[in-house]
Amino acid sequence: MAPGMGIKAPVPRTRTGCLTCRKRKVKCDESKPICSRCQRLQRECTWSDDMQVIPHTQHLDFTSTSRTNNDLSDHPALHLTRPSGQSFVIEFPDIDRATVPYIHHFASFCSRFLAYPNDSEGNPFQEELAPLAISSPALLHSMAALAAAHLSRTQKHHEIIATNYYSMALRELNAGLSDPAVARSDSALGACLLLCVYEITRSENSTWHEHLQGARDLILYRGGPKKDDYLTRFFSLLDVSGSLVSGTGTLIQGTYWLEDDENFGTDSPKKVNKWPYYDNANQVVDDFHHLMIYMAKLSALSAEAMGNQDPAIVAEKAAEIHEELWEWWSQSAPSLRDQSNDWRRLPRLQKLSVAETLEEEAYSSTKSVFAGCIIYLNHILDPCGHEPQKAEVIKAISEVLEIAKETPEGYGLEMGLYWGLFMAGVAVFNDHVAEDLIRRKLKADVSVSIYHADRVLELLEVLWKRQHQYNTKYDWRQVQIQMGIQVYVKSQNSINLYLLIEKFHRFIFA
């Protein structure tokens, strides 16, 4: 069992073979750093000693045989070894022993998939946020809640544990916000964002939007978004992605996720965030951050169209966004724009490294988001398919399906591909082959993914069933409202449910 993938008491066993081969129950030749099978199949090759929990009793000993006397401690600790070979230890003096495996799972798995897939080198959630949990019960319990919630996807006995940690995190966060210093801390904002992800992964209600609103208020109370801050970047990803589905526009106006303009032309060097580690010179992130501009504009336009805005005004704004979107695409990096959808099968003199593979996956994800934006833009103008589908929509659907088809089965999909698949599912009409592909790909292996698409797939299934039954196109936004799963809940209806909002407003608007 891979580190963090279970809470069973450890038993003696052989620690050979990479975790990827062991999970798939196939023989591993144990070549390091990448075994031959993973290299051939272009899979992530991970090993069980990448991260270990060092507890303080033999009864809970998860440590590897390589632990030295210098590692021994009277306190539970996280021992992180990066792929580069560097390592550090985080001790938790007051942690309950039952919580240790969940913190282990958060640090060894969940943190690596919060924003970018397999983000295992220089991950700020591991290296900057996790240490703050030592002095922040709210953050500690938020981390444990998210870890337990993910484990409950395949092991149901973790559900009640996840709920308990979630309740404790809310209680601790609510109590701590009476202190202005706590309200301005990274630990409070981090806890709020993790609770948001918790609700997204639970996929049972729309409370995630209240948590995101709470994070927005905390960011404003801290003086506003800081574009080079990893928590602001994470918030922006959740904010923009969520706004596409909720149809409400972003919670913070403007392109706050882009670099500060004042950094340019000054003597101070521009800060380069080496996150994710496989993104050379921030090319992947820069491309996606600029695409987020148009994602936010489409979200706002959808809200206007749903709010009975004059169709002529909506059409005029749509034409502007359409022109800007295609201009951006024409000027985007060739590594993105010209990427072949079958890049995994292209002949190469040398196999792609793990980092190079992840970079290509990120480009595929961005391409899928771009295609999804093209589909969404046309859907806003013609939600019920009264006009024949435009050539660009047909091409966008084809691009998404080709990318999805090339993604290996059981492979953790990027968040961007989820959006592209959803929009392709909205756009296809009585196409059983396309529906089957989308259905299969949205059911990602939960062992390699934090985010899942249960509610999205549920919505598509209802949409497809109606279209097959009545041979008529339907607006997925209206179907979502009719199903009672509209993800946006007005803040004034959620204050009693989420007491943090009241304290945020007391601090910010008093």
Characterization of this structure:
- GO terms for molecular function: DNA-binding transcription factor activity, RNA polymerase II-specific; transcription cis-regulatory region binding; zinc ion binding.
- Its main location: nucleus.
- Pfam families: Fungal_trans_2, Zn_clus.
- It is found in: Nucleus.
- Keywords: Nucleus.
- The model is unreliable at 1-15, 49-73, 261-270 and 486-510 (pLDDT under 50).
- The chain has a three-stranded antiparallel sheet, with helices on one face.
- It folds into three domains: 1-48, Zn(2)-C6 fungal-type DNA-binding domain (CD2-Gal4, Irregular), CATH 4.10.240; 50-261, no CATH class; 297-487, no CATH class.
- The protein is mainly α and 510 residues long.
- The protein has helices at residues 19-24, 36-41, 100-108, 124-129, 137-151, 159-176, 180-183, 186-202, 207-221, 230-246, 283-306, 311-331, 334-337, 354-381, 391-406, 415-427, 432-442, 454-470, 476-482, 500-509; strands at 51-54, 77-81, 87-91.
- β2 (77-81) and β3 (87-91) form a beta hairpin.
- It has 20 helices and three strands.
